[in-house]
Write a structure and sequence with these properties.
- The complex is a heterodimer of chains A (164) and B (432).
- Chain A contains nine helices and no strands.
- Chain A folds into two domains: 1-72, Rna Polymerase Sigma Factor, Chain: A (Orthogonal Bundle); 80-164, Winged helix-like DNA-binding domain superfamily/Winged helix DNA-binding domain (Arc Repressor Mutant, subunit A, Orthogonal Bundle), CATH 1.10.10.10.
- The termini of chain A are far apart.
- Chain A has 164 residues and is mainly α.
- In chain A, 39% of the residues are buried.
- Chain B is elongated, with a radius of gyration of 34 Å.
- Chain B contains four helices and 26 strands.
- In chain B, a hairpin with a 2-residue loop joins strand 3 and strand 4 (115-120).
- Chain B is α+β, with helices and mostly antiparallel strands and 432 residues long.
- Chain B has a domain at 28-63 and 400-432.
- Classes of the chains: A mainly alpha (164), B alpha+beta (432).
- Chain B: The chain crosses the membrane at residues 40-61, 407-426.
Chain lengths: 164, 432
Amino acid sequence: MDAREAEFNDFVASRSGALLRTAYLLTGDHHHAEDLLQVALVEAARRWEKLDEPEAYVRRVLYTRNISRWRKRHLDEVSLLDHDRPASSAADHDLRLTLEQALARLTVKQRTILVLRYFEDLTEEQTGRALGISRGTVKSVTRQAFERLRTRAPELADLIGAHA
Amino acid sequence: MTDLREELTRIAERAPSPRPYDAAHDAWRRGRRARRRDRAVVLGVVAAVLVVVGGTASLLVTAPTRIAPAAPVDAPAAVPTDLRAVPDHVLADPAFRTSDLAIGVQAAAFTSGGLPVAVSATDGSYRILDLPGWNAPGGASPSHRVALSPDGRQLAWAYLDPDGETGVRTVTLEDGTVREIPVVPANEPGPQQEVLAVTWSPDSGWLVWASGVIETEGWVSHGRVAPGSSSTRPWPARPDTTAVLAGDDAVRGLLHPGHISVNDDEARIAGFTIQRVLEPTPVAAMSPDGTRVAVGSTTPNGAVDVVDLNRMRVRLAYFGGYDEGQTTYAPLGWLGADTIAVAADVASRGTDIVLVPAPGNRRDGEAVVARVEDGVADLTVAVDLLDRPTVDRPGPDWPWSEERQRLVLAGAGLLVLLAVAAAVVVRRRPAR
C-alpha cells in the first residue's frame, strides 16, 4: 500500500459515515446509498492526486450521480422504504416517517436540492454550482418541492411552513 | 415547530454503517484502474490527433509544387500506356507551367484546356509548357497546334506575336534551343493570318506548315522548312485545306475534303481524289518513303484510308474491334513502311492508340498500345518510340485542388473532434 492509498483509506475511514448519511438522504435506500457512495469514492480514487478537497468532490459526485443514475435507469420513484424500514414502535417518529415518505415521492432532483439546501446547508448559489444548474432553477425546484410536500403531506405544514 | 434540518438529520441517522476498509480498498483499486484507462485513452487520442494533424499537414504542405517525375529519370525512353489530361486547377495555376524547355526526349505532346503539355519519354512526368508566342487560335480546329517530332526530340508550334508576326517556332528538347521561322511579317496589311497547322516529316527533319484567315478567307498558304533552316517559302493553299503532309525529301502535301495533293518545290508529284473519304479529320500522315498517306476519317467500318500515291488508289487498313458506332481515326504516324499508329476514338469508350498493319501487310494484326484520357486534345506521339513496348508509368502526382484540400482539412478536423469527444466521453464515464 503506497502513501496515496493510505491517505485515501484514512479519508474513507474518517468521512464515509457522514457521506453515507448524505447518500442515504439522497436515495432514501440503504443499498442505493452504499452503491452511490462507492461510485463517488471510485471517482475520487481515480483523480486522487488532483483533489484539493476530496470531501467536496465526493459530495458533488454524490449529488450529480444520484440524479444522472436515476435518469439513466428510470428508477421508480416509489420508495423502497417498506423494505428498508427497521422495526420501530415509531409513535414518536410519525413526523419523521411522514417526511421520509413524502421525500420519497419527490423527484430525485427535488429531493437532492432539498437535501443540499436544508441538510448540507448550501446556499442557492452553491447548490446550483454543485448540480450545474442556475440559481433560478434551484429556487423554482425548491418551491415546487415544498408545494408537493404540502400537497402530499399536509401534516408537514408546520415543518415546511417556515421554509416554503 | 420542528426544524426541517433536524428532521433530515434524524432521517440520515438511519443510514447504514459504513464498511470502511473493504469499501476503501475496492474503490481505490477500481479508481486506479480507471485512471490507467484514462491515461491510455488520452495517450491514444493525442497520438491519433498528432497522426491526423501531422499527416494532413504533410499532405498539404508537401503537395507537389510541380508535376513530379513518375519514374526513374534514367529509364529507357518509351511511350506510357496511359496519357492523361491535366486537371483544370493545375492548368489554371501558372506556378505549374515551365519555360525551361530543355526537358529531354518526350513521348507525347498535346493540348489540355488550351495549354501545351508534354509527357517525358524517360520518366513519364507531365509538363505544362510556357512556349514563347504560344497562341491557341480560335475558329476552326487546326491540326497539331503543338507538334512533337516522331523521334520525340523536337517540338514545333505556331506562334503569334503581339506585333502580328506569325510563324513557327521549334525547340530542341535536349538543350532548349528555340528556332524561329517567320511566315507572315509584323504589321502586314490585311486580315491577320495565323499558322493553322504544323507537322513533321517522318524522319523528324522537315516541317510543313499552313496558314490562313479562318473566319474570312480560309487557308491561304503553306510551305516547308528544311532541317535546321529558319526560312520558308510560302505557296498557295486551297481555302478548304484540312491538313498538311510532310515527307522526308522536301515533300509537302495538302489534304482537302475528298482530295489530296502532294508536291515538291519543283513540281506536283500527285493529285488524287479520294471518293471514299466521307469526313476527313484534320489529320493525315505520310509514310517515310513518301508513297502512301494515311488519312484520318470518321467512318463506321473499322478501317483507315491509305492513299497509295504511286498506284493512285485508296486501300483500307482494317482493324477489328473499332467498328461500333461512330469512331474517329486519327493517324499519328508510320512505323517504317508496315505499320500505322492510329488514335481510334470510339464515342462509347474513349480513345486508344492502336498499331495497325498497313494495307497488304497482315502479319501481326492490330494492337492496342496505349489509352488516352478524355481532355487530351491535338495529340502527337513520338511514333519512333512505338517500335518498342509502351510502359506502364504511375499516374502523375497532380497537386490537390483547393476544394480537395478543404475537404481533407474538414475531414481531419472532424476526426480530431471525434477523437477528443471520444476521450471526453470515456473520461467522464463512471469507473467500473
